[in-house]
Amino acid sequence: MRPKPDDDDPPGVPGFRTWRGVYVFVFVAFAVVVAALALFAHVYA
Asked: What SS3 state is found at 30?
């Protein structure tokens, strides 16, 4: 029997069951913020 790897531990963040979900959310949120900043800079420049 193989030991359970540490990467399979739940993240303990409400709404996320895996670390992959947390990473995807953070990446998408960052991309949205960068896109919004670029849009606002273009509109209000």
From this structure: helix
Distance CA 40, CA 45 (A): 8
pLDDT digits (tens, 9 = 90+) for 3-20: 666 667 889 999 999 999
d(CA 10, CA 31): 25
Please give the model's pTM, rounded to 2 decimal places: 0.74
Identify the CA nearest to 22 among candidates 33, 34, 10, 32. Answer: 10
Q: What are phi and psi for residue 38, nearest 5 degrees?
A: -65, -40
Computed over its alpha carbons, how large is the radius of gyration of the chain? 17
